[in-house]
Amino acid sequence: MAGSSLGTNPPNADRHLTSGGSDWLWAVFAIMALSTLGMVVWSFMRPRGTRLFHNIATVILMTATIAYFSMASDLGATPVRAEFGRGTTNTRQIFFVRYIQWFITFPLILIMLLFTSGLSLSDILTTAFFAWVVVVTGLVGALTPSTYKWGYFVMGIAALCYIWTHLLFHGPRSNFNGGTGVRSGFVRGAGMVAFLTMLYPIAWGISEGGNVISVTGEMIFYGILDLLLGPIFLYYFVWGIRNVDYGLFGLHGGRHGGNTGAGYGNNSGTGGVSGAGYGNGAGAGTGTVGTHGLGGNTGGAVGTGGLTSGTTGTTRTTGTAGHTKMEGSSIV
Description:
About 55% of the residues lie in helices and about 10% in strands. By secondary structure, the protein is mostly helical. Helix 2 runs antiparallel to helix 3, helix 4 packs antiparallel against helix 5 and helix 5 (about 120-145) packs antiparallel against helix 6 (about 150-175). The radius of gyration is 29 Å and the shape is globular. Mean pLDDT is about 80; it is low at about 255-330.
């Protein structure tokens, strides 16, 4: 299959993928596919409600599998005139499908990693946005034939600096609800991601940017980085947090979790108020306003020596997990 790829899908640029490069890409594709299958099996072995990180890893690996299938088949590429020609070659094959892969996988890697830290959700989402900036500027720069491509390169590096700041400085200094073990794991994982993402601009600069190395050399360089940041990092990271309680991260498994009726917001639950006795010494019922979905009602004290009757008000309790609603009234 690898030998027939370039024959079926012939290269469309002067400097293009070779049969050896296609063979390498098929090998990476096989590793990505097996890693995806392994992560899916591992996810099904986990209890429901504790699969978030496994599922994110599955999405990342599956996306990479599709991308490498396309590149090994010599698909998802377009010819672009190189700023620096090499010999008689004026155009270079640019694989835009790789950037589609990174557009999906890079933010997910950061979100998965930063979820274990004490950073706020806004900080996490902003960091993910800058991951998109890195990928988009890299793609536009690769498709730009003039020296203006280096302007996009600089903007991509600036976005990476923002990401590195959160990985190496703000993240480790945040409050880790998971404890010191999770913090040390985050520091190691963040260091690995930061180091590998420092190598991607180098690969871009000598391939799509400067046209220094061949397209096959580019595939080998990027392939090694994607394997390190893909299967190797993901399995290492997910294995490291396999025994951590998801509740420590503020993550709950919805209806598969063990807690229901946990309200949210101030005064989200209210207790009914009523209750009166008839006869001598009639008593009045009391009710309380609940906080965080916990309401209370007590019936009125019943008078003695007469017709007695008390009512309790209607209670409504709403919780975040399970969204349980209970209503009732009784006559005493």
